[in-house]
Design a protein that fits this description.
The complex is a heterodimer of chains A (325) and B (359). With 325 residues, chain A is α/β, with parallel strands linked by helices. In chain A, 32% of the residues lie in helices and 22% in strands. Chain A has 11 helices and 12 strands. In chain A, the strands form 2 sheets. An 8-stranded mixed beta sheet of chain A has the order 6-7-8-3-9-10-12-11, sandwiched between helices. A 4-stranded antiparallel beta sheet of chain A has the order 2-1-4-5, covered by helices on one side. In chain A, strand 4 and strand 5 form a beta hairpin. In chain A, helix 4 crosses helix 5, helix 5 crosses helix 6 and helix 6 packs parallel to helix 7. With 359 residues, chain B is an alpha/beta fold. Chain B has 13 helices and 12 strands. In chain B, strand 11 and strand 12 form a beta hairpin. At the A-B interface, helix 7 and helix 8 of A face helix 7, helix 8 and helix 10 of B.
Amino acid sequence: MNSHEPLLRIQNLDITFKPKAHAVRSLNLEIDKSQIHGLVGESGSGKSVTSTAVIGLLPEPPAKINSGQIIFKGRDILKLKQEEKRKLRGREIAMVFQEPSKYLNPSLKIGEQIREGLSLHLGMARKPALERAFELLSMVGLGESRRVLDSFPHELSGGMKQRAMIAMGIACNPSLLIADEPTTALDVTLQLQILELIYDLQNRLKMSILFISHDLNVVKQIADRVSVIYAGKIVESADKKAIFKNPLQPYTQLLLLSIPDPEKRGKPLKAIPGTVPDAEFIPSGCAFHTRCPYSKKICAEEMPLLKEYKTGHFAACHLLDGNTG
Amino acid sequence: MDTILEVKKLTKIFHSGSLLQIFDRNKDNSGQNEGAGNFTAVDRVSFSVKKNTVFGLVGESGCGKTTLARSILYLDPPTSGDVIIDGINLRELSSRELRLFRKRIQIVFQDPNSSLNPKLTIKTSLEEGLKNQKYPQNQISERVDELLEHVGIPASYKTRYPHEFSGGQKQRMVIARALTLNPDFLVLDEPVSNLDVSIQAQIINLLMDLKKQFSLTYLFISHDLNLVSYLSDEVGVMYKGRIVERGSVLDIMKTPLHPYTKKLLFSIPGNTEKYRNKEEAELFLNANKTASSAFSRPFTGCPYYSECPVREDICLEEKPELRAVSNKHTIACINDIYIKYQLKASKALKTEKNQRRDL
């Protein structure tokens, strides 16, 4: 593998759900080694469908992958057999979900749940695996006593459960951790703690993280690179600084302006008119054209391609090509 | 400006110990009911709201924001304390009078899906309140159209059912329904938390427009301090059932005093950079990373004691009451040395900024 090859490359991924919901539309995304990549989008924009496809958990049917590749370390995940996917999951690619209480097994002790992955993937015996589980819990700040190891999920608070989930995620030292809205269900003060934890762990373990969120402020805090997804398509992708200082795509621009902030007191917020399109009725051309204040004739007719406008700064918008028609 | 709402020592205790308990409604029971099985969700909260202003209530989940809101509207009557709206003490109203009075005070909940009846058309939902309050029959239909127009929904949609609308549209209808009887006072309980980012701004703008148009007063409840300080005039910060700091929005944003308010402010993503003072942020954020609430037990002192970075032994002795530190800024903290230091520091920061501007 040459050094320029990203850890994960998604090319032209296209996913539909029966009968005609178009969830992901020719999506392109690259994640480099040791990078925290923020994926921002509103509900129904295809964030979670994309990430479940990456980890190979997309149920087919009802989902149907029409085209595209997901290249992870030189191999196309979409072409792997079930058995090979299972070896990858949890070992090479791990996932942390939004609601820890839904994804932890309520009838198994935390230690047992972490041990399971270690035994399965690394062939560790029970005792050393439990020792390792305790080490992992210490890494996520739950190591002051062995109590958590022997607790059932319902005995822990929301923040502790999310920490335990993260411990489970990093158990086998994966190269890619997918964090799907990991702080959305948490209070602000806890949110910051979990963000700091994820940031520290990334520094120590040097893994890549695909950080999915609807909250631009959260992504601003943690990500190195940010991609914005709208109606199943990446509309802008750039380094964090570039995207927050100098967004190119109108949707990104407006989204940034619409966030309430005490400094905007007394002035109305710049709201984006209309609603997020339904996956069954995605507008023609540029999906955002129905809500875009700068929309031109071409925007309704042709789908803009994701192009590089500045070094490393990609965007999909006809206006950037100087189209005025 | 006139005061429209006054809340005096409102306390709400939930009893789980026994099946039935009888209280003297007129007696102040607070403090005596801390027995086993009783949970004090709201603890002697007092504040007042002036006409045509927005009072923002911030706090984390479980701190009693929603219970307080429900108690204010007498949806869950308070265990003790008074709610006075426009000079009328709600406790003195009979249940019939209370129902009639409710047209003046309305509430918008967080989740529009659970506050609209899925089996009723929008029209029926909106008409219900008008009919209940004996609105003239021949004007009802007209009034519904007018309301929908106010919230930006075409009147032709009124025969549709809630599931045919998006979350943002549903929230608009809930707001329209709250406005049916021309209330003076609206309680907004996390009205945008369930909505998409691009829709939130629409609803916030709508609420602010309506406030101006109909001279409304809002009690705005949210966990988002940024949002609350964008639209409120006064802010109350709640922690474990009590208001720990209250002041004008400028007081809270520029001179936050209570250690918990500081923690909340610094927790907002991106704010650590904005408030620059990294060491200070560290102090208030990391004061108690390891001690989790799951292990802590109740005691008599300041409820924030176990997490507080500036705690002293005296804090263990009693629950601090709110007291004024400046004109309208009140705080529930007895650590005088800390408060003096904070006030001095913020003053110094202000002069430093002014000097820089002068240069």
